[in-house]
Amino acid sequence: MRSHYLFRACFAGAFAASFMSSAGAQCVNVQGDPAEGGLIWAKVTPGTSVQLDDQQLTVTPDGFVVAAFHRDAPANSLLRVGNDCEYSVTVAQREYRISRVEGVPQRTVTPPQEQLERIRRERQLVAAAKAQVIERPDWLMQIDGGFVWPVQGRISGVYGSQRFYNGKPGSPHYGVDVAVPTGTPIYAPAAGRVTLAEPDLFYSGGTVILDHGYGLSSSFLHMSEVSAKVGDELKIGDLIGAVGATGRATGPHLDWRMSWRDRRVDPQRLVPPMPKPMPKPEPDKSTQE
């Protein structure tokens, strides 16, 4: 692994700011996407104490640090680097889409009593997988790469939207949905270690969690097939499984989610725009009578 990393500049609303100490000297250069669902990062002297609001941030051995803002983050956060550097980060606020989904199996909208223990157990599995601290900086994308789409297709759902299932309000949606046929291969959007691989969770169906290191992870939901296994070390582009419509889903799609610690990140802000589909070739009229 290289000793120096650079982030690919494909983040929506990417910025760079040099924060100054009270004495007027530059103390840290912060880059990234200071918005609800966005990430920021910086390079500091290894061993430096860094805090965002009330959270102590982890600094890698090379001196990199990353943090995220959740869906309903306040408009301002305070970043502290060492003893002399403080900066108020302005967090861009977003408007979210409201949508209504009908035809969802009623048992997943209002789970029957006999399923509550299963749901509780599965939530514990997911929480334990995300709670692991893997000290590998796969989120430090090398200069010749970055996060890529795990599948390509029509975006049918976006981060932060509020959904009503069969008329009942649900929790905000924390992923990006890509509608593609059942069986479409799903590939790793970045390197990481598989910490969860379950074929049939109550809400999310076939589910895989891929940990990119230092608290940043990807989750892949509603899969028809789970190819990856817990402990697998995946490279960008490695096969994870296949798209499906398992769990709480009305049609085949991939629900790709990302988290940093307990904060939900918008995956769409870490990848280039979805490629447009190739136009179908026109028929060769010269061969037609």
UniProtKB/TrEMBL annotation:
Q: Does Signal appear among the keywords?
A: yes
Signal peptide residues are 1-25
Q: Which domain of life is it from?
A: Bacteria
- Pinpoint the M23ase beta-sheet core domain residues: 172-267
Which Pfam families does the record cross-reference, listed alphabetically? Peptidase_M23 (PF01551)
> What keywords is this UniProt entry annotated with?
Hydrolase, Signal
Please give the SUPFAM superfamilies that the UniProt record associates with this protein. Duplicated hybrid motif (SSF51261)
What's the name of the protein?
A: M23 family metallopeptidase
**Lineage summary:** Bacteria, Pseudomonadati, Pseudomonadota, Gammaproteobacteria, Cellvibrionales
